[in-house]
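Input/output pair, single chain:
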Amino acid sequence: MKKTIELTARESGERIDALLARQEDIRSRSAAAKLLEAGLVTLGGVPVRKNHRAAAGDVFTVVLPEAAPARAQAQAIDLDVVYEDADVIVVNKPRGLVVHPAPGHPDGTLVNALLAHCGDSLSGVGGELRPGIVHRIDKDTSGLIIAAKNDRAHEALAAQLKDRSLSRVYDAVCHGSFHDDAGTVDAPIGRDPRNRQRMAVTEKNSRPAVTHWQVLARYARHTYIRCRLETGRTHQIRVHLAYTGHPLLGDTVYGGRRDKGLETQCLHARGLKFIHPVTGRPIELWTELPDWFREALGKLGPEIQ
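Output:
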């Protein structure tokens, strides 16, 4: 269970991260920073920043997340394996499955399933909670994700992510209609300065982010598009679509409404292209749209030609 504590500042002008770091359950500035960045420290119900200076008598509420296990455990969970050999495995992840253990999701994740499927043949580069994981997709996003079975493969695939030779293609449904049939969003992404639990297009403490998009079908109030990631920032497609004024359907975090009968976040990792880390052979994989995505498209009404 999560633990909630209250801290009262004794001195005016004291930094909140220093106050937190002295607590028995926190003990370090780095741990304090993570709590602050996650929005788990509030004053009067409002999340505070790590450079906040307290006034004497301020009472802060701190939510301590459940401790994650030191090592992920194998669990027999069905996997839709699209490709597998001695070096890599590609899985079609269902919507709702968390990728790796974390506070609030200690098990029942893709990593737990991979450990059961692959045994000890996953790369250790990702650490004991993220063995083999090269990249991530959100819990509510379905589709293709690749994992490495050894350190050599992991390092090679990570290099492809960095030099952008590993290509990922997503299908999405967003609100509204684009004027053009295709385009590119080139806008840096970093932590939202107003809400540390979200990402945002910002020049402050951000990294370059590029998303290419193409219209596949138009509807009265929505558009079905295909996105190709040139970079891989956290929530990149969701943030970029919101930035263009066309948030992802069902993504209430970034402004997408849940229209009646369309409560699903409509994002599916459709295609994956990479160079095999050992053989050097180019591999291109595609997956069909899941039933839930097709059902959502069917509820949008007739296509506009």
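Helices lie at 16-21, 29-37, 110-118, 151-163, 236-243, 291-298. The mean pLDDT is 90.
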